[in-house]
Amino acid sequence: MPQNVTISKEETPQLVQADDSPSNHQLPWFTTPAPIKRLFDRFPLRTYPANELPQRKSLDRARHNLYIFAADDPESLGSPSFNPGCLKWQAYLKFMGIQFSIVPSNNHASPTGALPFLLPSSSMPITGESSPVVSSTKLRRWAQAEVSREGFKSQPLTSNQELESERENSSGKEPSGMRYEAYISLVDHKIRHAWLYFLYLEPSNFAAVAYPSYIAPCSSNVLVGATLAHNLRAAAKSELLKHSAVIDVESLYTECDRAFAALSELLGDDSYFFALEEPRLFDASVYAYTNVLLDGRFSFKERRMLQILRKHANLVQHRRRIQERYFPGY
Q: What is the pLDDT of residues 264-309, one digit of tens each?
């Protein structure tokens, strides 16, 4: 991909200016050839307004649009994303009662180079210079501000009793501090690292799940597919090697087992983590992995991570509870 080269003022050749004294008149060290000068005099350079961003289909700009990895077919529209990083925010926005549309996408379409991102509702066209993109790092703050600004929006099929409870919890507040950070690190590190190996570096799972989910929709060309597959697996390997000199498979699964056990103990008999009455971001973070692992749409060939998760009935039930309430029918 071509790279933009920034030329500083010092690197730009400066024309020698003649002063008012006839005795000091100097010619510029470089002059534009006459034919080229006549050409630009006749067809001057002009800067045009930014074009609207290309769209595969018309967007409903009256609604918020969340760009995520998702199946691009009408029957699956609105189903949980197959990517944990995207599903986390898809679920969280639903927990907060925010109405939005799903736009199946990929990293190449993202202004930041990664999914998910959100385009808030607007009556203005989307332009390259002014698109109000909300990246994943800003989604939580945006969602809380949106709830405060517009008030709580109820989810379909919610009883009046549940609605009152959700209104009381619509601020999205949840525990913070060292204890919270310790538990979220189990999800963001121990479970995520095992997932990276499980999906991308286990050859049978990569062929059965990762390739048809991430690569096949991008291109039917064999060479392009092989290149994308190599890059995807290399990225997963590189990420794991940031935290260890070698990839120790047994250690990855052992740490994952301990992480799920700790989360199971934290949840206990409660419906949601930290004894909250409604699910919040921590629940979305856990659900993002448990749902992808237990989603019947995916046929994992190597099932070790599923077996670890299934040992904890309350985590399986936590996933089912969220699924039935926020993703009914999937």
A: 999 999 999 999 999 999 999 999 999 999 998 899 999 999 999 9
Q: Which two tokens stand for residue 22?
A: 């006839």
Q: Cα–Cα distance between 66 and 135 in angstroms, integer? A: 10
Q: How far apart are CA 136 and CA 88, in angstroms?
A: 10
Is residue 211 within 8 Å of residue 193, measured between CB atoms? Answer: no
Residue that has been written with the tokens 């939580």 in this structure? 140
Q: Alpha-carbon distance 70 to 76, whole Å? A: 8
pTM: predicted TM-score of the whole model, two decimal places: 0.75
pLDDT tens digits, 71-88: 887 777 789 999 999 999
For every residue of the chain, which 3-state class applies, written as one string?
A: CCCCCCCCHHHCCCCCCCCCCHHHCCCCCCCCCHHHHHHHHHCCCCCCCCCECCCCCCCCCCCEEEEECCCCCHHHCCCCCCCHHHHHHHHHHHHCCCCEEEEECCHHHCCCCCCCEEECCCCCCCECCCCCCEEHHHHHHHHHHHHHHHCCCCCCCCCHHHHHHHHHCCCCCCCCCHHHHHHHHHHHHHHHHHHHHHHHHCHHHHHHHHHHHHHCCCCCCHHHHHHHHHHHHHHHHHHHHCCCCCCCHHHHHHHHHHHHHHHHHHHCCCCCHHHCCCCCHHHHHHHHHHHHHHCCCCCCCCCHHHHHHHCCHHHHHHHHHHHHHHCCCC
